[in-house]
From TrEMBL:
Segments forming domain PH: 56-149
Record protein name field: Oxysterol-binding protein
Pfam families linked: Oxysterol_BP, PH
Annotated InterPro entries: OSBP_sf, Oxysterol-bd, Oxysterol-bd_CS, PH-like_dom_sf, PH_domain
């Protein structure tokens, strides 16, 4: 359409105004926005040159995309089609190499200035784009908004149609089932009356003509009539069944075609993703790899493969100021070293004083079989789904449960033993922070997924003689999956936690977000610490070698004194000048004064330096903020990772503690993870049998849950008021509100170890 006043093309939507008469004053433009009278366009104008974006059309063109601080904006060919915005280095690449794709249905489109705009999906993908002119930018914004609106509408219609389709299918199935029952009844009647008629005919043949002939003939006539009536009913029921099936066949075919189209679009998107990963791997194999630093010879193995410089626009880059730590440490004045020896470091127990285990435990498990599996055929159906709700074969697992994996946090429990001996709460906080970091060291090579515990499953870890503690875990909820954990140590501390794991498969990577708090209470000082876990990310899910990263921030808080340790887990970056998997932290008192600085890596070691003085200064940090300069004593080692057992690469990279977790023990509860049959079969290398057993256990758990739900509905129907509730309660834990954090949590209510001593497990459910 064209404007009668200015004769230039415009669009009906105010956000898509492309009228070159914008040079007039604001009131005129406002008038044209609110009261334009339009007529069909009769003349083809020479400008604007770009095609008018319309809903459903494929829109293509050149845009400038921000790549990194070295190369800045680079010209790229963008294609908008089917609600997906993809880009390529050149037009020739469209047939084989896609550099990136964003789904507009969940994207946010923001305009920065006259030529720049940003598209982000709220996750790891953000495109900073620049058009050649303001008019060109507006054309792209119009096309993107139209495509986004259509994609959102299609997604909503798909969800509604899916819901309606499901309800319709259920109703139709019930009707068809009723018709099938009618057919079955008619069939039985036909068989019955047919047999009776046959008997009557046989009797009639043997009857001599006489007085009873008329009675027999009448009887045969009646039975023949019944047979005819039943046959007619059978025919009518068949006719109804056929008519109903024909009436719904077209609807089912249409719904099936819609599902097929949606699946094709998803597979095309993921195929582009797989091609992109393949291209990056090929580029990496042909790139020149920088030699490892002498101080860090294993740096090459600590991160993902990266392509050469020509592919740098496919990675996320950071300014140098964003990669370095938020503070600077320098050696303190020598007078502090002479006059202020820290008693904190004198409390470290030498390794030679560690208790020798009383019981000899196993040091090996059967080697992991080399079974091939088509990962793509499984994972392409899992995008955007909760990982705990996806039926996965044991090929992706490791032969321990999530409860046992949770117990692995105690791998370095001696850090809490040392913390219990500290006189100062600030020194104690350093050991608690080191214990927090050490729990991630077991995950560096562990790409296998633990078994999801069954509801009511437990796991005990009795290391009273070896390490002075007893640990108990129980799966207290199934949806959402939640596990409660309680540890009591005779060396002066108690640890408890309730963890709910949320996980999402994003196509390129898998994010695992632990929810819930961990609490540690020391008996002597009554110091109560709490903290949360960071996000774990598994990269290269589809193509390439799997690798794991930890990123985020942790605040370890002493609720009694107000002391705090802020830990930062730096995400891996190929262009960072820091060591990989770096962790930094500062221990402060309730007034915010720094006392200790922590540094290290979550897969190797943590060190601690006592702060003598601090001042604002040094190089400017991110957004122009000045960094704090800490003058510290010489760093001392708090924790160092134990070496893996020999042959660990063939045993799922288990640590020495992990190798003993699934070792069979006498006297454990019937619900203990060691008694889980599918997990035991997998450990023994019988994966096919383990998969079959895993399906049996999951179906048994679903049956128990349905029975529990029916019982809840029955109880609700007999009650005066209230909706039906799941009546499941944990056996060894009870839910309360935590006094320190105010969060609902499960705490140990006692009785497990006493029950074990008595050997009375009658109250335990039969879950296996």
């Amino acid at each position: 359409v064209e404007c009668k006043l200015c004769e230039w093309a415009i669009y009906p939507s105010p956000i898509a105004l492309l009228c070159p008469a914008l040079c007039v004053n604001f009131l005129t433009v406002l008038h044209r926005l609110l009261s334009h009278t339009v007529k069909p366009r009769a003349v083809v104008m020479s400008e604007p040159k770009a095609p008018t974006p319309t809903p459903g059309d494929t829109y293509k063109g050149w845009l400038f995309k921000w790549t990194n601080y070295i190369k800045g904006y680079q010209r790229r060919w963008f294609v908008l089609s089917n609600g997906l915005l993809s880009y390529y280095r050149t037009q020739a690449e469209m047939g084989h190499t896609c550099r990136g794709t964003i789904n507009l249905a969940t994207a946010n489109i923001a305009v920065e200035d006259s030529c720049n705009f940003v598209i982000s999906n709220g996750g790891a993908q953000t495109y900073h784009l620049k058009a050649s002119s303001e008019v060109e930018r507006q054309r792209w914004i119009t096309a993107l908004e139209l495509a986004k609106a259509k994609a959102v509408r299609m997604q909503a219609e798909s969800g509604q149609s899916q819901l309606g389709f499901t309800e319709g299918v259920q109703s139709t199935l019930r009707t068809l089932g009723s018709k099938v029952e009618d057919l079955s009844t008619c069939n039985d009647l036909i068989a019955k009356h047919g047999s009776a008629l046959q008997r009557s005919l046989s009797e009639l043949e043997g009857v001599k003509l006489g007085g009873d002939t008329s009675d027999k003939i009448r009887q045969v006539t009646e039975r023949a009539t019944l047979f005819r009536i039943t046959s007619n009913a059978m025919i009518n029921a068949c006719r109804d069944f056929l008519a109903l099936a024909q009436a719904h066949s077209k609807r089912w075919q249409k719904a099936l075609q819609a599902e097929r189209d949606q699946r094709v679009r998803l597979e095309e998107t993921l195929e582009q993703l797989a091609k992109q990963h393949n291209h990056l791997e090929r580029a990496f194999r042909g790139a020149t790899v920088l030699p490892a630093s002498p101080s860090n010879p294993t740096a090459d193995s600590k991160g993902p493969g990266k392509g050469d410089a020509s592919d740098d626009d496919d990675n996320e880059f950071f300014d140098a100021c964003e990669d370095v730590q938020e503070f600077i440490t320098i050696p303190a004045d020598p007078k502090y070293h002479r006059s202020s020896p820290s008693p904190f470091f004198l409390l470290r127990s030498p390794q030679s004083q560690e208790v020798v285990p009383v019981r000899k435990r196993r040091t090996r498990i059967p080697d992991k079989p080399n079974y091939s599996l088509n990962l793509w055929s499984i994972m392409k159906n899992c995008i955007g789904k909760e990982l705990s709700k996806i039926p996965m074969p044991v090929n992706f697992n490791e032969p321990i449960s999530m409860l046992q994996r949770l117990s692995e946090d105690l791998e370095y429990s001696e850090l809490l033993d040392r913390g219990a001996k500290c006189q100062s709460s600030l020194e104690q906080l350093c050991y608690v922070a080191a214990f927090t970091v050490s729990s991630y060291s077991t995950t560096v090579h562990r790409t296998g997924k633990p078994f999801n515990p069954l509801l009511g499953e437990t796991f005990e870890l009795d290391r009273l003689q070896e390490s002075g503690y007893r640990s108990l875990c129980e799966q207290v909820s199934h949806h959402p999956p939640a596990a409660a954990h309680h540890v009591i140590s005779e060396r002066g501390w108690t640890l408890r936690q309730e963890i709910t794991v949320a996980s999402k498969f994003r196509g390129k990577y898998l994010s695992i977000m632990p929810l819930g708090s961990i609490h540690c209470i020391f008996d002597k000082s009554n110091n109560h610490y709490s903290w949360k876990k960071v996000t774990t990310t598994v990269h290269n899910i589809i193509v390439g070698k799997l690798w794991i990263d930890q990123s985020g921030e942790i605040d370890v808080i002493n609720h009694r004194t107000g002391d705090r340790c802020h830990l930062k887990f730096a995400p891996y970056s190929y262009f960072s000048r820091d060591v990989a998997r770096k962790v930094t932290g500062v221990v402060t008192d309730k007034d915010g004064k720094a006392h200790y600085v922590l540094s290290g890596t979550w897969d190797e070691k943590m060190e601690c330096s006592r702060v003598m003085q601090s001042s604002r200064g040094g190089e400017n940090g991110t957004e122009g903020r000045q960094k704090t300069v800490y003058q510290t004593l010489k760093a001392r080692e708090l924790w160092r990772k134990n070496p893996l057992p020999e042959g660990a690469e063939n045993m799922y990279y288990f640590t020495q503690l992990a190798l003993t977790l699934n070792e069979q023990e006498d006297g454990v509860a019937p619900t203990d993870s060691r008694r889980r049959p599918d997990q035991r079969l997998m450990e023994q290398g019988m994966w096919d049998e383990a998969n079959a057993e895993k399906q049996r256990l999951e179906e048994k758990q679903r049956s128990v849950r349905r029975e529990r739900e029916r019982e809840a509905v029955r109880l609700a129907s007999t009650a005066e008021e209230g909706a039906p509730q799941d009546n499941y309660t944990a056996l060894w834990f009870e839910q309360v509100v935590d006094e320190a954090t105010g969060e609902p949590t499960h705490i140990y209510k006692g009785g497990y170890w006493e029950t074990k001593e008595q050997g009375t497990w009658e109250n335990c459910p039969d879950i296996f």
